[in-house]
Amino acid sequence: MPLSSSRKLIAQGLVAWLKTVQNTDTSSALYQHVKNGAIWDPSAYTGLWAEVTYMQGKSSPAGSGGHQIGWRVEDHPAWIISTGYRYDADSETCMNNIYTAMDMLLPAIHGRYQIPNPNNPTQPIGSVFSVLVGEQNDRGAPVTFPNGNVYFMWNAYVTVVQQYNVTLVSP
């Protein structure tokens, strides 16, 4: 089966998967809302919300394409999963919710080595063979949003390793 670059599909798969992560304390979804891209006005959300944004990537040849003519490419794109909660209304409740997100999300990511295909969630994205956390330290800080409210943002960094084939062309 020929494999191709799947960065868009991976981002969509991360969003679809995050929507299914459960808060084991409450037996409900961890996130009230998850979006691919930034959430500029989270005032509609009373619970935890998450955004998935691209951070960086690196790709390089990984050898021949096997029985296909071309090269195999190994790609290491990284995303930021940002978790937010209103901070200025009640910082203690906010931090307890953020800690819950940390305790639920980090083990859930560490337990994955594939990303579900958002178009068929029972199947993995074919090019992905590893999901890594820890190449960047997770970080958090209060942030003032354009709506004037302060939210605590916790960022976890996820690197997804994929391999795909390219066909060589002449000039």
What gross morphology would you assign?
A: elongated
* CATH architecture field: 2-Layer Sandwich
Secondary structure tally, helices: 2
CATH homologous superfamily classification: Phage tail protein-like
What fold name stands as the CATH topology? STM4215-like
Q: Report strand %.
A: 35-45%
Just give the CATH class. Answer: Alpha Beta
Label the structural class. Answer: alpha+beta
- Radius of gyration using CA atoms only: 18 Å
Helix content: 10-25%
Domain unit count: 1
Question: Roughly what is the average pLDDT, rounded to an integer?
Answer: 89
The N- to C-terminal Cα distance equals 27 Å
Task: State the low-pLDDT regions, or none.
Answer: none
List how many beta strands DSSP finds.
12
Give the helices and strands as they follow along the chain.
HEEEEEEEHEEEEE
Largest sheet: 8 strands, mixed
What's the layout of helices and strands?
Blueprint: H1 7-18, E1 22-23, E2 28-29, E3 33-36, E4 49-56, E5 59-64, E6 71-75, E7 78-86, H2 91-110, E8 116-117, E9 120-124, E10 128-133, E11 139-144, E12 150-166
Parallel strand pairs: 3-4
Antiparallel strand pairs: 1-2, 4-7, 5-6, 6-12, 7-12, 8-9, 10-12, 11-12
Notes on the structure:
The chain is α+β, with helices and mostly antiparallel strands and 171 residues long. It has a single domain, classed as 2-Layer Sandwich (STM4215-like), CATH 3.30.2000. Helices cover 19% and strands 42% of the residues. It contains two helices and twelve strands, in the order H-E-E-E-E-E-E-E-H-E-E-E-E-E. It has helices at 7-18, 91-110; strands at 22-23, 28-29, 33-36, 49-56, 59-64, 71-75, 78-86, 116-117, 120-124, 128-133, 139-144, 150-166. Strands 3, 4, 5, 6, 7, 10, 11 and 12 form an eight-stranded mixed beta sheet that branches. A two-stranded antiparallel ribbon has the order 1-2. The longest helix has 20 residues, at 91-110. It starts with 6 loop residues before the first helix and ends in a 5-residue tail after the last strand. The model has no long low-confidence stretch (mean pLDDT 89).
